[in-house]
Amino acid sequence: MTTAATVTLNDDVLNLDSLLTTDELALRREVRGFVAERIRPNINAWYEDAHFPLDLVPELGELGVLGMHLKGYGCPGRTAVEYGLAAMELEAGDSGLRTFVSVQGSLAMTAIHKWGSEEQKNEYLPPMARGEVIGCFGLTEPTAGSDPAGMATVARSDGRGGWIINGAKRWIGLASVAQLAVIWANTDDGIRGFIVPTDTAGFTATPIGSKLSMRASIQCDITLDDVRLPGTAILPAARGLRGPFSCLNEARYGIIWGAMGAARDAYEAALGYSQERMQFGKPLAGYQLTQEKLVNMLLEIQKGTLLAIHTGRLKDAGALEPVQVSVGKLNNVREAIAICREARTILGGNGITLDYSPLRHANNLESVRTYEGTDEVHTLILGNHITGVSAFR
């Protein structure tokens, strides 16, 4: 069997590597090597067994990809483009592993880094960057996914300077293995964020089973039943939806890159297979229809990667706007799913097995397409930008 790792490819037809610095290329090689050594040999079993490899977490910390875009407090302080390249390589291995890095760094750590007190930053961020403490991010609820303003979770004062939280969250990555949760709740002062140790009485995280997507990852239901917290648990600088939305935009940015990693891996698997699979006396790669499929895949991967690089340069320059993040997330995930599905057709019946990656990637991307803003939400964000008229309500 030929895999992407054993095929020599000539797929950077636009020479996009020339847009990357020596340091960026070195970082990409390092993360790609980690994926080749630690993820690719094991991902099929992890996916089939619905297993998330917790033993990789400290290794990801040592690799320097946890909160890698954050500066200070023991965080790596790498550039946005470097973070994007790492996300691309991790998702070429599997969306579930890139999602872990995103939940840990772009959501939980970013919430503390942007909105936490100095005491909170110093206490939590260094061990999280090392992978010694896992965090999760509780925003989505059973009845409030695309409309977080409708959240029903409530935090009220206990009259003694502390807080009591009641409510429920759903589809919360890592919650059952995390040591802390950043929970967003309605208060008399609007929506606020709280750092909740997951061993606090009344906090329960239950993994969601029977998933057809993101099987090598953990998503949970959370219940908060009279969870009592000290006053120091609140994120002091976060008020309103600006707090969680700033974190979501960090995660969405990583998806722009990650989706192209999944697409590239699916394309490489299909290309390698087509070069070796003989039908009617010659390899599949020798047929016009197969070449058309491969060319169309490559065009979208190159365009999507160029979009990711441009978005990253804007982010590093401090010039990236939220609507531009929506452009990247909507386009690249949508195109990546189409590429993975098309790659599966080249594999024929063999493509529905875990021997090949395209259908696994396509299934995972259905989740990526949904979280951090659905296609519909990002379409309406762009529609509002174009027309000046909001269609959300």
TrEMBL record:
Residues 136-227 form the Acyl-CoA oxidase/dehydrogenase middle domain. Its cofactor is FAD. Keywords: FAD, Flavoprotein, Oxidoreductase, Transit peptide. Pathway: Amino-acid metabolism; tryptophan metabolism; Amino-acid metabolism; lysine degradation. It holds the Pfam family Acyl-CoA_dh_1. Residues 21-132 form the Acyl-CoA dehydrogenase/oxidase N-terminal domain. It comes from the Bacteria. Residues 239-386 form the Acyl-CoA dehydrogenase/oxidase C-terminal domain. Belongs to the acyl-CoA dehydrogenase family. This is glutaryl-CoA dehydrogenase (ETF). It comes from Pseudarthrobacter humi.
